[in-house]
Design brief:
Length: about 325
């Protein structure tokens, strides 16, 4: 489809799958970051020098933004994924802006920034104008609290722009992470004071499922995504299985507040096995086709406006979903 701004965008339909949590890593992206931040953590420079990234030290693709967009679309085609949302971990990236433009809606992205920075509101406005669909925040990795008053101007700008926000709380493979910042409960006063912002807690809270669900009970604008291996379950004293986690989240929040994701990167194959596993779980739980579609596609389309709806406006679909959540 072509929107009023002349940009061709992918259009999905029930039965399609949207991956609401994937990553983008490449040599040009790392090169751009090191050029801007020569004093960054040495592991970023080492990754650029070695051409490898991640726990398995896998090769970084050396593709410019346009070639990366084409390559990404082909791998989604191969995996049967209609659209995907890249959650950025590096801030202020022209490479990612060019990737978004070249993707023409097939792969959307959330920008990354430090919400405490006085420049954060202005940067967010520029990023949304450049085509980003919202923000990915990493408080446990970057060691800050979203309840910090310094973040308030950023959230005020996010609310005015209609920016959705995905947040990584809980455990992390990042060696610089600090679990003192891992509890989703810290988001409570922010989600309470900014009900117009939709917050998506990644990885079912990554070991903080109970805290995330309590937050979702208190704040109806809080959702969860299912992304990743969810191997935090191995360390959870409740002994959860993935079907039990899905059932608990859907029972507590409703199917309109759970999003599918794989956490796939670009240094290894697309995580087809995670997509298969999660789709099978939803079928075995006995969800209706309509509810499965919410989790696998429609929630991401609605929350991140993947169908090209204007920023700063809440659709009737979103309002209906939230009203449904309140009566549960």
């Amino acid at each position: 489809m072509t929107s009023g701004d002349g940009v061709t965008r992918a259009r999905t339909a029930p039965g399609d799958v949207v991956d609401a949590h994937v990553h983008l890593f490449s040599l040009p992206l790392f090169r751009e970051f090191i050029e801007k931040h020569p004093d960054a953590d040495p592991r970023w420079r080492k990754a650029l020098e070695d051409g490898k990234w991640g726990r398995r030290s896998e090769s970084l693709p050396d593709l410019d933004a346009a070639a990366m967009a084409q390559w990404y679309a082909a791998r989604l085609d191969d995996a049967g994924i209609a659209q995907a949302v890249v959650v950025s971990v590096l801030a202020d990236s022209q490479y990612t802006r060019d990737f978004i433009a070249a993707s023409a809606g097939r792969v959307a992205a959330l920008c990354n920034l430090d919400p405490r920075s006085p420049e954060a509101p202005a940067l967010l406005e520029r990023e949304m104008a450049a085509g980003f669909k919202g923000v990915k925040l990493l408080p446990v990795n970057r060691c800050y609290r979203l309840s910090d008053p310094a973040c308030r101007p950023f959230f005020e700008k996010a609310a005015s722009l209609g920016a959705a926000i995905t947040v990584h709380y809980g455990v992390t493979v990042d060696p610089s992470g600090d679990l003192r910042y891992a509890d989703p409960t810290d988001l409570s006063p922010v989600a309470r004071d900014f009900p117009e912002i939709t917050f998506v807690i990644a990885h079912f809270g990554a070991g903080y499922l109970h805290e995330a669900l309590r937050l979702g009970y208190q704040c109806k604008n809080v959702c969860l995504d299912s992304s990743g291996t969810n191997n935090w379950m191995d360390y959870d004293p409740h002994g959860y299985t993935l079907p039990q986690v899905f059932e608990r989240a859907i029972t507590a929040l409703g199917p309109e507040r759970v999003l599918f994701g794989t956490d796939s990167g670009t240094t290894g194959p697309y995580r087809r096995w995670i997509a298969y596993q999660q789709r099978r779980v939803l079928e075995e739980l006995g969800l209706s086709a309509a509810d499965r579609d919410l989790v696998l596609r429609a929630n991401a389309v609605r929350i991140f406006r993947l169908d090209g709806r204007a920023q700063g406006r809440r659709s009737d679909e979103l309002g209906q979903a939230q009203r449904g959540a309140r009566v549960r």
